[in-house]
Amino acid sequence: MALEVEHKFLLANENWRQAVERSEIFRQGYLSSQPTSSIRVRICERRAWLNIKSATVGTHRLEYEYEIPVTDAEEIMAHLCKKPLIEKTRHYVRHGNDLWEIDEFEGANQGLIVAEIELDEIGRAFDKPAWLGAEVTDDLRYYNNNLALHPYSEWGEKP
Amino acid sequence: MALEVEHKFLLANENWRQAVERSEIFRQGYLSSQPTSSIRVRICERRAWLNIKSATVGTHRLEYEYEIPVTDAEEIMAHLCKKPLIEKTRHYVRHGNDLWEIDEFEGANQGLIVAEIELDEIGRAFDKPAWLGAEVTDDLRYYNNNLALHPYSEWGEKP
Protein backbone atom coordinates (compact mmCIF):
# COMPACT_ATOMS: atom_id res chain seq x y z
CA MET A 1 0.00 0.00 0.00
CA ALA A 2 1.09 3.53 -0.74
CA LEU A 3 -0.54 6.45 0.98
CA GLU A 4 -0.74 9.36 -1.40
CA VAL A 5 -0.81 12.93 -0.09
CA GLU A 6 -1.14 15.35 -2.96
CA HIS A 7 -1.81 19.02 -3.61
CA LYS A 8 -2.96 20.42 -6.97
CA PHE A 9 -2.54 24.00 -8.21
CA LEU A 10 -3.21 26.02 -11.32
CA LEU A 11 -0.29 27.95 -12.82
CA ALA A 12 0.16 31.72 -12.46
CA ASN A 13 2.50 32.09 -15.45
CA GLU A 14 4.83 30.20 -17.79
CA ASN A 15 8.07 30.64 -15.79
CA TRP A 16 8.07 27.00 -14.68
CA ARG A 17 9.04 25.99 -18.23
CA GLN A 18 12.60 27.21 -17.62
CA ALA A 19 12.99 24.68 -14.79
CA VAL A 20 11.72 21.54 -16.58
CA GLU A 21 14.12 18.64 -15.94
CA ARG A 22 12.38 16.16 -18.22
CA SER A 23 8.98 15.49 -19.82
CA GLU A 24 6.97 12.36 -20.61
CA ILE A 25 3.89 11.82 -22.76
CA PHE A 26 1.02 10.00 -21.01
CA ARG A 27 -2.09 8.48 -22.51
CA GLN A 28 -4.57 7.14 -20.01
CA GLY A 29 -8.15 6.05 -19.59
CA TYR A 30 -10.54 5.13 -16.78
CA LEU A 31 -12.22 1.77 -16.49
CA SER A 32 -14.24 2.98 -13.58
CA SER A 33 -14.80 6.04 -11.44
CA GLN A 34 -17.16 5.65 -8.55
CA PRO A 35 -17.68 6.70 -4.95
CA THR A 36 -15.14 4.16 -3.62
CA SER A 37 -12.37 3.98 -6.20
CA SER A 38 -11.07 4.80 -9.66
CA ILE A 39 -9.23 2.38 -11.94
CA ARG A 40 -6.87 3.77 -14.54
CA VAL A 41 -4.81 2.36 -17.41
CA ARG A 42 -1.79 4.46 -18.43
CA ILE A 43 0.67 4.13 -21.29
CA CYS A 44 3.94 6.06 -21.16
CA GLU A 45 6.47 5.40 -23.90
CA ARG A 46 6.67 1.59 -24.26
CA ARG A 47 5.35 0.68 -20.80
CA ALA A 48 1.88 0.49 -19.26
CA TRP A 49 0.35 0.35 -15.80
CA LEU A 50 -2.93 -0.40 -14.13
CA ASN A 51 -3.62 1.88 -11.18
CA ILE A 52 -6.24 1.64 -8.43
CA LYS A 53 -6.93 4.67 -6.25
CA SER A 54 -9.38 5.16 -3.46
CA ALA A 55 -11.67 8.02 -4.41
CA THR A 56 -11.39 9.98 -1.18
CA VAL A 57 -11.50 13.62 -2.15
CA GLY A 58 -8.70 15.79 -0.83
CA THR A 59 -5.13 15.02 0.05
CA HIS A 60 -5.19 11.46 1.38
CA ARG A 61 -5.71 8.38 -0.84
CA LEU A 62 -4.85 4.69 -1.04
CA GLU A 63 -3.04 3.78 -4.25
CA TYR A 64 -1.91 0.55 -5.94
CA GLU A 65 -0.06 0.26 -9.24
CA TYR A 66 0.82 -2.77 -11.39
CA GLU A 67 2.73 -2.90 -14.65
CA ILE A 68 0.84 -4.67 -17.46
CA PRO A 69 1.66 -5.50 -21.11
CA VAL A 70 1.30 -2.49 -23.45
CA THR A 71 -0.78 -4.57 -25.87
CA ASP A 72 -3.30 -5.30 -23.07
CA ALA A 73 -3.37 -1.61 -22.13
CA GLU A 74 -4.05 -0.59 -25.74
CA GLU A 75 -6.98 -3.03 -25.96
CA ILE A 76 -8.42 -2.07 -22.58
CA MET A 77 -8.25 1.62 -23.54
CA ALA A 78 -9.87 0.98 -26.92
CA HIS A 79 -12.69 -1.28 -25.71
CA LEU A 80 -13.32 -0.70 -21.99
CA CYS A 81 -12.26 2.84 -20.99
CA LYS A 82 -14.44 5.90 -20.94
CA LYS A 83 -13.89 8.35 -23.78
CA PRO A 84 -12.30 10.82 -24.28
CA LEU A 85 -8.99 9.37 -23.14
CA ILE A 86 -6.70 11.69 -21.19
CA GLU A 87 -3.66 12.81 -23.19
CA LYS A 88 -1.05 14.96 -21.50
CA THR A 89 2.62 15.80 -21.25
CA ARG A 90 3.97 15.55 -17.72
CA HIS A 91 6.84 17.93 -16.99
CA TYR A 92 9.04 17.31 -13.94
CA VAL A 93 10.15 20.58 -12.33
CA ARG A 94 12.60 20.77 -9.42
CA HIS A 95 11.99 23.52 -6.85
CA GLY A 96 14.24 23.34 -3.78
CA ASN A 97 13.97 19.78 -2.49
CA ASP A 98 10.61 19.16 -4.14
CA LEU A 99 9.87 17.61 -7.50
CA TRP A 100 6.71 19.11 -9.00
CA GLU A 101 4.72 17.36 -11.70
CA ILE A 102 3.15 19.76 -14.16
CA ASP A 103 0.56 18.22 -16.45
CA GLU A 104 -0.09 20.00 -19.73
CA PHE A 105 -3.23 18.50 -21.24
CA GLU A 106 -3.97 17.90 -24.92
CA GLY A 107 -6.94 16.56 -26.86
CA ALA A 108 -10.30 17.28 -25.23
CA ASN A 109 -8.56 18.93 -22.25
CA GLN A 110 -6.22 21.16 -24.26
CA GLY A 111 -5.53 24.50 -22.55
CA LEU A 112 -5.48 23.06 -19.04
CA ILE A 113 -2.21 22.99 -17.06
CA VAL A 114 -2.10 21.68 -13.47
CA ALA A 115 0.86 21.46 -11.06
CA GLU A 116 0.94 18.71 -8.45
CA ILE A 117 3.14 17.87 -5.51
CA GLU A 118 3.10 14.51 -3.71
CA LEU A 119 4.15 14.62 -0.07
CA ASP A 120 5.37 11.73 2.03
CA GLU A 121 3.33 12.77 5.04
CA ILE A 122 0.07 14.62 5.69
CA GLY A 123 0.60 18.25 6.70
CA ARG A 124 4.29 18.42 5.69
CA ALA A 125 5.21 22.02 4.83
CA PHE A 126 6.40 22.79 1.29
CA ASP A 127 7.72 25.88 -0.43
CA LYS A 128 5.39 27.45 -3.03
CA PRO A 129 7.19 28.42 -6.25
CA ALA A 130 6.39 31.91 -7.65
CA TRP A 131 4.81 30.38 -10.78
CA LEU A 132 2.12 28.63 -8.72
CA GLY A 133 -1.51 29.81 -9.02
CA ALA A 134 -4.64 28.95 -7.02
CA GLU A 135 -4.85 25.63 -5.16
CA VAL A 136 -7.50 23.28 -6.62
CA THR A 137 -6.85 20.16 -4.51
CA ASP A 138 -10.47 19.99 -3.38
CA ASP A 139 -12.01 20.87 -6.74
CA LEU A 140 -13.32 17.60 -8.22
CA ARG A 141 -13.31 18.93 -11.77
CA TYR A 142 -9.51 18.77 -11.92
CA TYR A 143 -9.28 15.06 -11.13
CA ASN A 144 -8.20 13.16 -14.23
CA ASN A 145 -11.09 10.72 -13.90
CA ASN A 146 -13.51 13.65 -14.05
CA LEU A 147 -11.60 15.25 -16.94
CA ALA A 148 -12.36 12.02 -18.85
CA LEU A 149 -16.10 12.58 -18.26
CA HIS A 150 -16.26 16.39 -18.42
CA PRO A 151 -13.23 17.57 -20.40
CA TYR A 152 -11.90 21.10 -20.00
CA SER A 153 -12.96 22.05 -23.54
CA GLU A 154 -16.60 21.64 -22.45
CA TRP A 155 -16.43 23.67 -19.23
CA GLY A 156 -18.69 26.69 -19.45
CA GLU A 157 -16.52 29.08 -17.44
CA LYS A 158 -12.82 28.56 -17.16
CA PRO A 159 -10.73 29.79 -14.23
CA MET B 1 -6.23 -10.71 -24.69
CA ALA B 2 -8.21 -13.81 -23.89
CA LEU B 3 -11.62 -14.33 -25.40
CA GLU B 4 -13.81 -16.13 -22.90
CA VAL B 5 -16.73 -18.26 -24.07
CA GLU B 6 -18.57 -19.64 -21.10
CA HIS B 7 -21.81 -21.46 -20.28
CA LYS B 8 -23.38 -21.56 -16.81
CA PHE B 9 -25.79 -24.17 -15.48
CA LEU B 10 -27.55 -25.05 -12.26
CA LEU B 11 -27.12 -28.59 -10.91
CA ALA B 12 -29.80 -31.30 -11.17
CA ASN B 13 -28.39 -33.45 -8.35
CA GLU B 14 -25.29 -34.13 -6.26
CA ASN B 15 -23.75 -36.86 -8.45
CA TRP B 16 -21.00 -34.52 -9.69
CA ARG B 17 -19.36 -34.78 -6.27
CA GLN B 18 -18.10 -38.29 -7.10
CA ALA B 19 -16.10 -36.89 -10.02
CA VAL B 20 -14.35 -33.98 -8.26
CA GLU B 21 -10.64 -34.00 -9.18
CA ARG B 22 -9.63 -31.16 -6.85
CA SER B 23 -11.13 -28.16 -5.04
CA GLU B 24 -9.90 -24.65 -4.21
CA ILE B 25 -11.26 -22.00 -1.88
CA PHE B 26 -11.77 -18.56 -3.46
CA ARG B 27 -12.45 -15.26 -1.79
CA GLN B 28 -13.15 -12.38 -4.16
CA GLY B 29 -14.57 -8.91 -4.34
CA TYR B 30 -15.57 -6.39 -7.01
CA LEU B 31 -14.03 -2.96 -7.30
CA SER B 32 -16.47 -2.05 -10.01
CA SER B 33 -19.35 -3.49 -12.00
CA GLN B 34 -20.75 -1.32 -14.72
CA PRO B 35 -22.15 -1.44 -18.23
CA THR B 36 -18.69 -1.74 -19.82
CA SER B 37 -16.62 -3.88 -17.44
CA SER B 38 -16.18 -5.53 -14.06
CA ILE B 39 -12.98 -5.50 -12.01
CA ARG B 40 -12.38 -8.30 -9.55
CA VAL B 41 -9.78 -9.11 -6.90
CA ARG B 42 -9.44 -12.81 -6.03
CA ILE B 43 -7.43 -14.62 -3.37
CA CYS B 44 -6.89 -18.39 -3.67
CA GLU B 45 -4.57 -20.00 -1.16
CA ARG B 46 -1.47 -17.76 -0.96
CA ARG B 47 -1.87 -16.05 -4.34
CA ALA B 48 -4.00 -13.18 -5.60
CA TRP B 49 -5.11 -11.79 -8.95
CA LEU B 50 -6.71 -8.71 -10.39
CA ASN B 51 -9.12 -9.50 -13.21
CA ILE B 52 -10.78 -7.22 -15.77
CA LYS B 53 -13.73 -8.53 -17.79
CA SER B 54 -15.85 -6.83 -20.37
CA ALA B 55 -19.43 -6.90 -19.15
CA THR B 56 -21.01 -8.25 -22.33
CA VAL B 57 -23.81 -10.50 -21.23
CA GLY B 58 -23.83 -13.98 -22.67
CA THR B 59 -21.04 -16.25 -23.80
CA HIS B 60 -18.44 -13.94 -25.26
CA ARG B 61 -16.23 -11.63 -23.14
CA LEU B 62 -12.82 -9.98 -23.12
CA GLU B 63 -10.75 -10.89 -20.08
CA TYR B 64 -7.42 -9.81 -18.61
CA GLU B 65 -5.79 -11.17 -15.45
CA TYR B 66 -2.72 -10.03 -13.49
CA GLU B 67 -1.17 -11.53 -10.39
CA ILE B 68 -0.78 -9.04 -7.51
CA PRO B 69 0.63 -9.30 -3.95
CA VAL B 70 -1.76 -11.00 -1.49
CA THR B 71 -1.28 -8.15 1.00
CA ASP B 72 -2.49 -5.64 -1.62
CA ALA B 73 -5.46 -7.90 -2.43
CA GLU B 74 -6.42 -8.13 1.26
CA GLU B 75 -6.35 -4.32 1.61
CA ILE B 76 -8.24 -3.70 -1.62
CA MET B 77 -10.93 -6.19 -0.55
CA ALA B 78 -11.21 -4.64 2.91
CA HIS B 79 -11.32 -1.00 1.82
CA LEU B 80 -12.41 -0.74 -1.81
CA CYS B 81 -14.57 -3.75 -2.75
CA LYS B 82 -18.32 -3.99 -2.56
CA LYS B 83 -19.66 -6.08 0.32
CA PRO B 84 -20.53 -8.87 0.80
CA LEU B 85 -17.41 -10.48 -0.63
CA ILE B 86 -17.93 -13.67 -2.65
CA GLU B 87 -16.75 -16.81 -0.84
CA LYS B 88 -16.89 -20.12 -2.65
CA THR B 89 -15.25 -23.47 -3.14
CA ARG B 90 -14.46 -24.25 -6.76
CA HIS B 91 -14.56 -27.93 -7.61
CA TYR B 92 -12.92 -29.14 -10.82
CA VAL B 93 -14.88 -31.98 -12.40
CA ARG B 94 -13.71 -33.93 -15.49
CA HIS B 95 -16.42 -35.09 -17.90
CA GLY B 96 -15.09 -36.64 -21.11
CA ASN B 97 -12.59 -34.14 -22.52
CA ASP B 98 -14.09 -31.19 -20.65
CA LEU B 99 -13.11 -29.74 -17.30
CA TRP B 100 -16.14 -28.31 -15.52
CA GLU B 101 -15.84 -25.73 -12.74
CA ILE B 102 -18.51 -26.14 -10.10
CA ASP B 103 -18.77 -23.22 -7.68
CA GLU B 104 -20.33 -23.96 -4.31
CA PHE B 105 -21.01 -20.64 -2.61
CA GLU B 106 -20.73 -19.82 1.08
CA GLY B 107 -21.44 -16.74 3.18
CA ALA B 108 -24.22 -14.53 1.82
CA ASN B 109 -24.60 -16.81 -1.22
CA GLN B 110 -24.73 -20.10 0.68
CA GLY B 111 -27.02 -22.68 -0.97
CA LEU B 112 -26.12 -21.68 -4.52
CA ILE B 113 -24.15 -24.10 -6.72
CA VAL B 114 -23.33 -23.26 -10.35
CA ALA B 115 -21.48 -25.31 -12.97
CA GLU B 116 -19.50 -23.55 -15.67
CA ILE B 117 -17.67 -24.61 -18.78
CA GLU B 118 -15.24 -22.41 -20.70
CA LEU B 119 -14.91 -23.17 -24.39
CA ASP B 120 -12.05 -22.21 -26.66
CA GLU B 121 -14.37 -21.19 -29.48
CA ILE B 122 -17.89 -19.82 -29.84
CA GLY B 123 -20.43 -22.49 -30.76
CA ARG B 124 -18.15 -25.49 -30.02
CA ALA B 125 -20.33 -28.49 -29.10
CA PHE B 126 -19.92 -30.03 -25.64
CA ASP B 127 -21.37 -33.06 -23.91
CA LYS B 128 -23.86 -32.32 -21.10
CA PRO B 129 -23.26 -34.44 -17.98
CA ALA B 130 -26.37 -36.06 -16.42
CA TRP B 131 -25.94 -33.99 -13.24
CA LEU B 132 -26.42 -30.74 -15.15
CA GLY B 133 -29.58 -28.65 -14.53
CA ALA B 134 -31.03 -25.63 -16.34
CA GLU B 135 -28.74 -23.31 -18.30
CA VAL B 136 -28.47 -19.83 -16.74
CA THR B 137 -25.79 -18.30 -18.99
CA ASP B 138 -28.01 -15.34 -19.86
CA ASP B 139 -29.43 -14.81 -16.36
CA LEU B 140 -27.62 -11.80 -14.92
CA ARG B 141 -28.37 -12.77 -11.33
CA TYR B 142 -25.85 -15.61 -11.47
CA TYR B 143 -22.89 -13.44 -12.41
CA ASN B 144 -20.53 -13.18 -9.45
CA ASN B 145 -20.47 -9.37 -9.65
CA ASN B 146 -24.25 -9.36 -9.24
CA LEU B 147 -24.08 -11.94 -6.43
CA ALA B 148 -21.91 -9.38 -4.58
CA LEU B 149 -24.72 -6.82 -4.88
CA HIS B 150 -27.77 -9.09 -4.58
CA PRO B 151 -26.64 -12.26 -2.79
CA TYR B 152 -28.58 -15.51 -3.16
CA SER B 153 -29.71 -15.41 0.48
CA GLU B 154 -31.74 -12.27 -0.35
CA TRP B 155 -33.45 -13.57 -3.50
CA GLY B 156 -37.19 -13.74 -3.02
CA GLU B 157 -37.85 -16.80 -5.13
CA LYS B 158 -35.14 -19.35 -5.69
CA PRO B 159 -34.99 -21.65 -8.71
TrEMBL record, chains A, B:
Gene3D superfamilies: Hypothetical Protein Pfu-838710-001
Active-site residues annotated for this sequence: Y30 (proton acceptor)
Ranges for domain CYTH: 2-149
Full protein name: CYTH domain-containing protein
Species: Methylomicrobium album BG8
Organism lineage: Bacteria, Pseudomonadati, Pseudomonadota, Gammaproteobacteria, Methylococcales
